[in-house]
C-alpha cells in the first residue's frame, strides 16, 4: 500500500535539501476527481501532491517539456528534476535516457509502484454511471466518493486495459522507490485486446480501421501528449521550409510534403501509420494517446501490434535497457527474413 | 468512403514502384535490360543508396500516390556495400509489412527481395511474379489519395 505521506515527504525532503530543483507530480485538478500534473519547486508545496487512481498521466512528457524550455532559455542547471513515476512512466523515462534526450544525472526518479492495481479508465467508470468527486486505492479495490456515499469497486472492473495487461507495474529505473514490487501480477495476459482484434479477417479489419481513421480530426492530441513525440519539427508540419522573397510559387508548391495536414482519408492513414512506425520499439504502452483522443480512435491496438512484433520477432523490450541499442538501429542474424524473395 | 471496387479487367496493368538499391538491385535491373530479358514494364524503378535508407514514408507515399504494389529490393544479406544496411532494412520492412497487413491491406501488395547485380534473370522473375500476384487484386484504392 502506497502511503501518500511518503510521497509528500520524499518530495519535501528532496526540495528542502536542495537535491532537486523541482518535482513533477500530481495534484488535485479542477475538473472533479481527476488529478493533474504539477511541477512544484518549494518544499511547502509538497502537501499539494496526491496519489490516487486518476493519476494516469505519463509525467515523462513533462520532463520533455522541461528539457525543451531549458534549451530555449539556454540554461543547463546543475540540479536534476524529480519525477514521480509509475512503472510505465519509468519505462518511458528509460527510453528517453536511452535516446540521450537528457542524461541520467539530470533526472531523479521517484518510483511509485502500482502494486495490485493500476489507474482507472474514465470511460469504463462513466459506463458504470459513477460520478465521483474523489477516488482512492484500497488493496485490490478502488474507493470512489459519490453523492450517494462511498462506493467500492473491484479495481479490475474499471481499470485501464493497459494496466490489466501490465507486465511491469514496478518502476525498474528509479533513484528511490515506494511500494511493493508486484512485477508479474499480470491480471490479463499481455496483448489480450490485440489478439481478440486480430482474430478477425483482413476485410473486417480494414473496414474497422477505415472507419476509425476517417473519424480522425487531426487535432494532434496524440502527438502532444506522447513523451516520445519530442521532435522539434514533426514530419507532418514541415514548417521550416525556407521561404524568402525569391521563393517562387512553384518552389513552394513542389516542396516535399510526405503528409498533408488536411483531415482526409489517405492523409489520416499515412499520419497514423507514420506515427506508429516512429514509435515502434519506443512506445512503452502508457496509452495516453488513446486516452486523450477526442474521437476515441483505438491507437493502442496499433502500438501494441508493433510492441508485440518487436518482442516476439526481435526479442526487444522498449525501455528495458538504457545502454542498449534501439530497435530499428540494431539487428540480429536470426531476424525473420522468410518474407523476402 | 466508397468501397474499393475490385474491377478486374483483362487489360488492367498494375503500377509497381520498385525501390532498388544502387549497388545490387539497380545494377541487377540494368543487367536484365542489357541481357534483353523480357519482363513486364509495370515497374517504375527508383534508385536509393541502400535499402537501409528506405524510410517507411517512401512506401506509404508510393501507396498514397496510387501505386498498386511496392517492391523494395537490395543486396543479399552479407553483401551490403554499407556492411549492415540491409540487416537494418530487413527489420524495418518487416514492421511495415506487419502493420500494413494488420490494418487490412492485402499483404501481396508489398514485397521485398534480394537481387544481386549478377541476377538479372531473378529481377525479371521477381517483377513477373509481382505483376501476376497483383493482377487479381485489382487497383489499390485503400491507401490512395483522392485527387478528385
- State the helicity of chain B in percent bands: 25-40%
N-to-C terminal Cα separation of chain B, in Å?
Answer: 13 Å
| Percent in strands of chain B | 15-25%
Structural Rg of chain B:
15 Å
Describe the 3D structure.
The complex is a heterodimer of chains A (about 350) and B (about 150). By secondary structure, chain A is an alpha/beta fold. Chain A folds into two domains: about 1-190, no CATH class; about 195-315, no CATH class. Chain A contains 13 helices and eight strands. In chain A, the strands form two sheets. Chain A has a five-stranded mixed sheet with strand order 2-1-3-4-8, sandwiched between helices. A three-stranded antiparallel sheet of chain A has the order 5-6-7. The model of chain A has no long low-confidence stretch (mean pLDDT about 90). Chain B is an alpha/beta fold and about 150 residues long. Chain B has a single domain, classed as Rossmann fold (3-Layer(aba) Sandwich), CATH 3.40.50. In chain B, about 35% of the residues lie in helices and about 15% in strands. Chain B has helices at about 25-35, 55-65, 85-100, 120-135; strands at about 15-20, 45-50, 70-75, 110-115. Chain B has a four-stranded parallel sheet, with helices on both faces. The two termini of chain B are about 15 Å apart. The mean pLDDT of chain B is about 90. Chains A and B meet through α8, α11 and α13 of A and α2, α3 and β4 of B.
Structure in a nutshell:
The complex is a heterodimer of chains A (341) and B (148). With 341 residues, chain A is an alpha/beta fold. Chain A has 13 helices and 8 strands.
Amino acid at each position: 500500500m502506497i502511503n501518500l505521506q511518503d510521497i509528500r515527504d520524499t518530495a519535501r525532503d528532496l526540495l528542502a535539501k536542495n537535491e532537486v530543483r523541482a518535482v513533477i507530480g500530481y495534484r488535485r485538478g479542477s475538473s472533479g476527481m481527476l488529478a493533474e500534473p504539477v511541477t512544484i519547486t518549494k518544499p511547502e508545496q509538497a502537501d499539494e501532491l496526491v496519489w490516487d487512481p486518476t493519476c494516469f498521466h505519463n509525467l515523462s512528457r513533462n520532463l520533455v517539456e522541461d528539457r525543451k524550455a531549458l534549451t530555449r532559455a539556454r540554461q543547463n542547471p546543475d540540479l536534476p528534476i524529480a519525477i514521480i513515476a509509475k512503472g510505465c512512466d519509468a519505462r518511458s523515462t528509460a527510453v528517453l535516457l536511452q535516446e540521450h534526450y537528457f542524461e541520467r544525472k539530470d533526472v531523479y526518479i521517484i518510483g511509485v509502484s502500482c502494486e495490485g492495481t493500476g489507474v482507472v479508465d474514465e470511460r469504463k467508470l462513466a459506463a458504470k454511471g459513477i460520478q465521483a468527486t474523489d477516488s482512492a486505492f484500497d488493496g485490490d479495490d478502488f474507493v470512489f466518493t459519490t453523492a450517494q456515499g462511498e462506493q467500492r469497486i473491484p479495481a479490475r472492473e474499471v481499470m485501464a486495459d493497459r494496466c490489466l495487461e501490465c507486465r511491469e507495474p514496478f518502476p525498474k529505473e528509479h533513484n528511490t522507490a515506494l511500494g511493493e514490487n508486484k512485477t508479474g501480477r499480470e491480471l490479463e495476459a499481455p496483448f489480450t485486446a490485440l489478439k481478440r482484434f486480430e482474430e478477425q479477417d483482413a476485410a473486417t479489419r480494414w473496414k474497422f480501421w477505415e472507419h476509425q481513421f476517417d473519424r480522425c480530426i487531426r487535432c494532434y492530441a496524440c502527438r502532444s501528449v506522447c513523451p516520445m513525440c519530442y521532435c522539434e519539427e514533426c514530419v507532418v508540419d514541415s514548417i521550416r521550409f525556407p521561404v524568402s522573397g525569391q521563393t517562387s510559387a512553384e518552389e513552394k508548391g513542389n516542396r516535399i510534403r510526405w503528409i498533408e495536414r488536411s483531415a482526409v482519408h489517405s492523409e489520416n492513414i499515412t499520419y497514423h501509420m507514420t506515427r506508429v512506425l516512429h514509435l515502434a520499439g519506443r512506445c512503452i504502452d502508457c496509452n495516453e494517446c488513446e486516452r486523450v483522443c477526442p474521437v476515441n480512435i483505438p491507437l493502442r491496438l496499433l502500438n501494441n501490434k508493433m510492441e508485440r512484433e518487436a518482442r516476439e520477432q526481435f526479442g526487444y523490450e522498449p525501455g528495458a535497457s538504457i545502454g542498449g541499442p534501439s530497435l530499428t538501429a540494431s539487428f540480429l542474424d536470426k531476424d525473420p527474413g522468410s518474407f523476402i524473395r | 468512403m466508397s468501397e474499393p471496387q475490385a474491377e478486374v479487367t483483362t487489360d488492367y496493368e498494375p503500377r509497381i514502384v520498385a525501390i532498388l538499391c544502387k549497388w545490387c538491385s539497380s545494377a541487377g535491373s540494368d543487367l536484365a535490360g542489357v541481357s534483353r530479358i523480357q519482363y513486364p514494364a509495370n515497374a517504375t524503378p527508383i534508385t536509393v543508396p541502400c535499402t537501409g535508407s528506405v524510410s517507411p514514408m517512401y512506401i506509404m507515399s508510393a501507396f498514397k500516390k496510387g501505386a498498386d504494389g511496392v517492391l523494395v529490393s537490395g543486396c543479399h544479406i552479407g553483401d551490403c556495400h554499407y556492411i549492415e544496411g540491409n540487416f537494418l532494412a530487413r527489420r524495418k520492412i518487416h514492421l511495415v509489412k506487419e502493420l500494413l497487413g494488420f490494418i487490412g491491406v492485402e499483404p501481396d501488395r508489398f514485397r521485398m527481395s534480394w537481387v544481386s547485380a549478377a541476377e538479372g534473370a531473378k529481377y525479371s522473375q521477381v517483377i513477373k511474379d509481382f505483376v501476376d500476384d497483383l493482377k487479381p487484386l485489382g487497383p489499390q484504392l485503400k491507401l490512395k489519395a483522392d485527387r478528385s
